[in-house]
UniProtKB/TrEMBL annotation:
Superkingdom, natural source: Eukaryota
Primary localisation category: membrane
Naturally occurring in which organism (per UniProt): Sesamum indicum (Oriental sesame)
GO molecular function, one term: ATPase binding
N-terminal signal peptide: none
Function: Essential component of the vacuolar proton pump (V-ATPase), a multimeric enzyme that catalyzes the translocation of protons across the membranes. Required for assembly and activity of the V-ATPase.
Pfam families: V_ATPase_I
Compartments where located: Membrane
The name this protein goes by in its record: V-type proton ATPase subunit a
Protein encoded by which gene: LOC105172914
Family: Belongs to the V-ATPase 116 kDa subunit family.
UniProt keyword annotation of Phosphoprotein present: no
GO CC terms, sorted: vacuolar proton-transporting V-type ATPase, V0 domain
Record membrane topology: Multi-pass membrane protein
The keyword Nucleotide-binding is assigned to this record: no
Amino acid sequence: MGERGRGGCCPPMDLMRSEPMQLVQLILPVESAHLAVSYLGDLGLIQIKDLNAEKSPFQRTYAIQIKRCGEMSRKLRFFRDQMSKAGLAPTTRSLPQDVLNLDDLEVKLGDLDAELVEINANGEKLQRSYNELMEYKLVLQKAGEFFNSALSSAEARQREYASHQSGEESLETPLLSELETANDLSKHVKLGFIAGLVTREKSMAFERILFRATRGNVFLKQAVVDEPVIDPVSGEKVEKNVFVVFFSGERAKNKILKICEAFGANRYSFSEDVSKKTQMITEVSGRLSELKSTIDAGAVHRGNLLQTIGEQFEQWNLLVRKEKAIYHTLNMLSIDVTKKCLVAEGWSPVFATKQIQEALHRATHDSKSQVDAIFQVLYTREMPPTYFRTNKFNSAFQEIVDAYGVAKYQEANPGVFTIVTFPFLFAVMFGDWGHGICLLLATLYFIVREKKLSSQKLGDIMEMTFGGRYVIMLMAIFSIYTGFIYNEFFSVPFELFASSAYACRDPSCRDSTTVGLIKVRDTYPFGVDPAWHGTRSELPFLNSLKMKMSILLGVAQMNLGIIMSFFNALFFKNSLNVWFQFIPQIIFLNSLFGYLSVLIIIKWCTGSQADLYHVMIYMFLSPTDELGENQLFPGQKTAQLVLLLLALVSVPWMLLPKPFLLKLQHSRQQGDSYAPLPDAEESLRSAANHDSHSHEEFEFSEVFVHQLIHTIEFVLGAVSNTASYLRLWALSLAHSELSVVFYEKVLLLAWGYNNVVILIVGIIVFICATVGVLLVMETLSAFLHALRLHWVEFQNKFYEGDGYKFYPFSLALLDHEEE
């Protein structure tokens, strides 16, 4: 096998076992520690352990630097929000490396932050003044109209009164004229008024409260403002009315002011004098134009500043996040007593040793340190993390396994087999090559556009679908394959590989059983003969076929799981698990269900009419009885007796010897005072293979109960797990029958009406039902059932899944993470 990427530095990818790991210690001089951690982060092949777990974040060495980075991150978030509000997007532009200095950046960000805050504050003040003047102008215009109309009305009445005075007096002339009353100063009443704006939705309530509070002793005049007005306080566009309240007395004035304040009505001073009012409108208009030009100039200056920030934002943001990550990592290192060097411990793959040493040497050289960093491997019995190097194709399959549990260090990885078995078991339940093609086309869209889509932010469901695009692609390809076997294209059979081997004896045979069909050609070469579809015997035939096929697949996969437990035991040099776990388990499973699988194959090959239910039931109830017509091969009775005896013997074989042998091993280890030190690899393997009996205190009762539970679980699980694989048959049948229902009861029914409108409606309903039910819901259902078969029926035979993932310190991951 050739070497894989990274310039030929890494060994070939091996998914069967996780990468060999080592615990390393790094002793870094203080002057080169920052650069060393930075280079290790670029490398991304070491998981640093926290050696200061007992210290709080504020007690650590680099707490001040992290606080500085946090403050710079806050300023950058503020810049991003401001750019977002301004409709600007950060642009990516490479900068010279010497410009990107953290101390210079801190000063620069501080200056930009202060300038932007000042611009925003000034802009808000100017905008508020502008909005207030706009409202003031509206009040002057609308309220001026009130007074102008009132003045013209008063002048008209005065002229009318004068004309009446010049004429003859009549009986209707009042005894006291209005002029005389007006000349009586003692009866003169001086009215005050308040003008302003109130929101339109509150105007009715405002009027009602004013009337009640003053007992009707006010006169309110309102005018609707046509365009929405920007409120000076909230800054939002609001529909408002201009109002003028006329009142008499100081007490009424105080009440009106309080009501205005409660309703958020903005009040403005107003003069009755027409000449003054005209002058004020001219002054306000002049100030508005001045403010508008000032605000526009401020907006241009702010836009230019944000544009400058946006050009360098991504580099600044990445630098701050990297520095923050580096200082977080430095805080995990313990400082030497002399405070001249930092000590780091961490896990790294064995193949990365040379690269780590080169990175440390480069850091020493670049920082011009007089002392080189020290790299050494530590021997430990601690469980190492699990690290599989995956690519974009197999990473989704590995995630399926990891969702159940991360593999223990160097135990056999089910992900290797999942790449094939998972999409295949899905396809057994989803077999229809028409649906498979639809699924494949949808997946190819994601694969063809993966570069573009990977850089976009997708929704949760789309993100999950895009991540599993290669899983879905294989599921679709296998579904096309099983669809050819089932001979179903949207439930319609086709004579793809040859003509049907059967023909009708007479026209009525379609409603009869297979007796009505006669074989006229060679057997159909691949898959189910299309002649079966639509006959009365289709369902019994396909049920029998799919049920037996499900058992065969299930027994094969469970045997694979038990065989993997054998390879685990060999790898970890655990002979007890070979002799007292693997051998009795493989015997027990195959004595019962392996034998059933052989009977199914023999029955298929010979065409026997034997009842397999009867054979299996009476194998336990009456093993010595003659088989009669259910005999499939000579010596079957003797074989069944032997297999039954082996199955019975394998149960105590699993249960009894292992706990006693473990006790004997423990007592021998207690007797040995000295033992040779294992090398690093052996110590890690023994640590990974630890059980409850490997601790100092050996409790025989606990070990025995654990073994008893394990034995009962396997014996009962052998039956229940085999039955669980019948879900392959059930889901496949459900999918097939739903396809038939949608095809016959929707599409063919609409076709039979000979009406174009009904046909179009029928096609639309058929497409929606096929996509919604069969391509979405059925896909999800089959996916979950295939997931359960892998997690429970397959992986519990050998997979412990009690490890923990390898999370290296990597600065490259910061580019794809949201802060």
